Structures are given as structure tokens and as C-alpha cells.
Amino acid sequence: MSEASATKSNPLDPAAFRPAAISAETLAANEAFRKAMSGGPDWWDIGAQAYRDAMASGRGGFPPPEKSPRARSIQIDGKGGHKVELRVIAPERAKGVYMHIHGGGLVFGSAANQDPMLERVVASTGMACASVEYRLAPENPYPAAWDDCESAAVWLVKNAKSEFGTDVLTIGGESAGGTLAAATLLRMRDRHNYTGFRSANLAYGVFDSSMTPSQRHSPEKGILVGRIGIQKFSEAYLPKGVDPRDPDVSPLYADLKNMPPAIFTIGTIDPLLDDTLFLYSRWIAAGNEAELAVYSGAPHAFNIFPLPQGPAANARIDGFLKRAIS
């Protein structure tokens, strides 16, 4: 089965998960990506801030961030007097608002580095984009990032119409951003009686912080992230005493009723494969609409980096978001 057909037919067709489904182009790109991302120190050895500084300067395999000239920042009130920043890129007449949450293991990443992605979504969907600059671990462990994203969602529900001219809302994120997007939907339903998000983009998130089988059986290092890295991220954002299966931390264990239609994107060699397969199944079992997009041989974060299957995955995500606001 080709990579393209694996995403269009039954997403749980076993052929999509077999080595024969991975093209030579994907294998070569994965190996080049692995080499580009290896060789440097691990962040837990040099410290999170030192690693962030290397990323910001374009060292360590990460390209320097590109900035959009039309991006702007909005400061909103968060919990406990904390201010939360939203990185905004908007068209003249927005058809909706996409609340974006960036990835990075809850330790790295920044809304300020998401401009190319936000510009793509604006161009593809006609929506305004607002990316949340949430607090990072280990300096700010759970529930800091969760609280900041909840605050952003509450603000958008109240202010999107006056700020952007529309109160049509969607939400999504990649990796840790997918984790926080799912948690934000649950908090908005349970704490604010709000279930108005039109759709959710939940791309390869950590949906079980107690570690799914695919996390436990993944290589120690892997491509971009492996078993050790997942454990180190979890130690950074989860304080001792917090149950890793608390539904607020691990959406897989939540009551998932009354959630919006969601698209779940995952590569077959991503250590978080089970997280996506399991949450997709529970999303459906709770009576919600969902799509599952499986990409043979794709590693973690494949649609953020210049890897072969990224453009197709992004086009499918953008199409899903656009249809939800039509």
C-alpha cells in the first residue's frame, strides 16, 4: 500500500503499519533527519534554558525562527495575576479564529516561533490565528501551561467577536500542544460549560503521561524523541504527587462526551502512536466525530520539519479546519 492510500482508506489497515508501506524517499529523509538532530548534548544534561538558547540561535539542528511582519501580540489576564501573551496573525476579515498551542514537550517552543505555521493556516482557512505563549517547565510545571491555555480559551470566547469580528472558534496543536488542546477542551466543558469549539486539530499529542505501550517500547533515543526523552519531559512538567493518569494531565482517561469533531494525525514510527490511536478510538466511542490520518514511516513532528509527508498532512489538517467553519 502506498503512503497516500494509507491515509485515505481504512486508517487501521495493517498494511499501513508494515515496513513495506514506507517509501524509499521517506526512509532516506528520516535517516538524514536523524543525523541532523543527533550528536549534540541532551537538554537534561545541559539544562532547559541552555538548550532553548541553542534552539533560538539556530544551533542543534533547529533552523532559526522566521518572523511574520504582520504578527502582533495581545496580553491577556491569566490566573493568579499572571499575564498570558497571544501571538496573533489575522486576515482583514477573519472567517473564524484558530487557537493554536505549540509543541516542545512542555519544556521548549514558543508562540513567537510559530509564524510560518500560522501564516499557512490563515492562507488556507481564512481564519485568524492566536498562538498561546504558555509558561514552560521545569520552571513552571503543571498546572501552569494548562492554566494559561484555559485563560486564553476563556478570553477568546468572550472577546473573539470584538477583536476579530467572529466568534467561530477552533483549537489545535502539535505534540505537547495537542495534549494541551485536548485538556483545554475538557476544562472549557467542565469548568465553563462551553462546548462551542467547531473542531480540534490533535496532532501526535501525549495523551497518557503514564506511558502507553508504544512509548514504553520505543527506542531510547529515536528520531527527535525517544523513550528517555519522553520520561525526562514528564519529570519536568509533572510535580511529584500528581497522578499521571489524572484526566486533566492525561486526556485518555477523561470523560470525552460532547467534544468537537477532531482530526488525529500520527506517523507509524512515532513513539506516541498508541496515544493517538487510543484517544481517537475513545473520541469515537464517546459519540464524537473524528478523522484519523496515519502516515507510514513518519516520525514525531514530521509535518513541522521539511519531511516528505508533511505537506500532505498539513493540507489535510487545514482542509479539516476549513470545513468545520464553512
Strand runs, count: 8
Q: Which H/E pattern describes the elements?
A: HHHHEEEHEHEHEHHEHEH
Number of domains: 1
Stretches where pLDDT is under 50 for at least 5 consecutive residues are 4-8
Report the mean per-residue pLDDT as an integer: 95
Supply the CATH architecture: 3-Layer(aba) Sandwich
Helix content: 25-40%
Radius of gyration: 18 Å
Key descriptive features of the protein:
single chain; 326 residues; alpha/beta; Rossmann fold; 8-stranded mixed sheet; 11 helices; 38% helix; 14% strand
Folded structure, characterized:
- There is one protein chain.
- With 326 residues, the chain is α/β, with parallel strands linked by helices.
- It has one domain: 3-Layer(aba) Sandwich (Rossmann fold), CATH 3.40.50.1820.
- It contains eleven helices and eight strands.
- Strands 1-2-4-3-5-6-7-8 form an eight-stranded mixed sheet, sandwiched between helices.
- α5 links the parallel β3 (97-101) and β4 (128-133).
- α6 crosses α7.
- The radius of gyration is 18 Å and the shape is globular.
- Residues 4-8 have low confidence and may be disordered.
